[in-house]
Design goal:
With 102 residues, the chain is of the alpha+beta class. The protein is 37% helix and 27% strand. The termini are far apart.
């Protein structure tokens, strides 16, 4: 009777390490591509913070100011030399500014 080893034990430790590194690098590349002109153009006035985060991801910097009745939150996204600034009033997009070019 032929006995087969489980698939995971067939990989040598070095092969597993290479596989994990390739996966991490692939995922890191996908995350960085969320800040594009096309994605920033999808962000429109009136969107919620959750909607913006679903398009652009978590901001590099977030700052909330003002009294509790009318609070203003600023999201800043940085990617290389490019900066995207989105201002929310009462958790809805009021304005955006971007240094991204076509």
């Amino acid at each position: 009777m032929i006995r087969m080893r489980p698939m995971i034990t067939m990989f040598r430790p070095a092969s597993r390490l290479v596989l994990v590194l390739m996966l991490v690098l692939t995922l890191a590349g996908c995350i960085g591509k969320r800040i594009t002109k096309a994605n920033v153009d999808q962000v429109t006035e009136g969107m919620s913070k959750k909607q913006v985060e679903s398009i652009l991801g978590q901001p590099t910097l977030s700052r909330t100011e003002g009294p509790t009745t009318v609070k203003q939150t600023t999201y800043v996204y940085r990617q290389g030399k490019d900066t995207i600034t989105i201002i929310f009033k009462d958790d809805k997009v009021q304005s955006k500014d971007s240094t991204l070019s076509d």
